[in-house]
Amino acid sequence: MKKYILFDHDGVLVDTEFWFYKAGERALADIGFILDRDQYLRDMTEGMATWAQAIAAGIDEETISRQREVRNAYYQEYLRTEDIEIDGVLETLDVLAYEYRMGIITTSKPDDFALIHKNRSILDYMEFYLARDDYARAKPHPEPYLKGLQRFGAISGETVVVEDSSRGLNSAVAAGIDCIVVANAFTASHDFSKATAKVATIRELPSTIRDLKT
Known about the structure:
- By secondary structure, the chain is α/β, with parallel strands linked by helices.
- 41% of the residues lie in helices and 12% in strands.
- It has helices at residues 17-29, 37-44, 52-56, 61-81, 89-96, 110-116, 143-152, 166-174, 205-210, and strands at 4-7, 101-105, 128-130, 159-163, 178-182, 197-199.
- Strands 3-2-1-4-5-6 form a six-stranded parallel beta sheet.
C-alpha cells in the first residue's frame, strides 16, 4: 500500500513549464539568438534546456550569465501576470490528504517558488518541499527523490512520484520509486515509457494510486 506521495511542482501543480521556456526564449531573443523549441525540449530531458543551444553556438559565459538574470526577471513577471492554475489541483489534494502524506520535490529556485505560492494554498497539503537549493544534483539524478524519501522516513515501495517530464520520471526511476505521469501539453513529446502509469488529468490520481501494487 502506498503511504506517501512526492509531487513534482512545475507542470504538475502549477502550469509554469511553458512560461519558464518563454522567459528564456525572450532573454535570448534580446541578444539576437533564436531558441529552437524542439531542441529545448530534448535538452530539457537532461536538465540543460535554456542555455545549451547558446553555449553550443559559442555565446560567451559572461553574456549567458547576464541573460540568465534577465530570464529570471522575465519569468517572475510571467508568474505575477499569467494564469498558472491547473484545474482540479486543490480538489485532488483535498481527496489525497485523507490517505497519504505528501511533499514536493522541485527544481524551482526558492524565490520563484515563494512567488508562486504567495497567494495559493497548495502548500497547506504538504509536509515539506525541497527546492533547487536543497540538493546538490538535480533531476534526472535520483538525489532529489532520495532526499524526499529521507524526509518522510519512507521506503521506495511505500511511495509514488507524480511527474510531467522525462527528466523527472528518470529521477524517480533511478531512485526506485513508482512514477505516475500527468499529461502536460508542453512535455508531451518526452519519452514516458518507464512510467508506472499515465493519467490525462490530475483528477485521476486518487484512483490510479489506489490501483498500484506495492
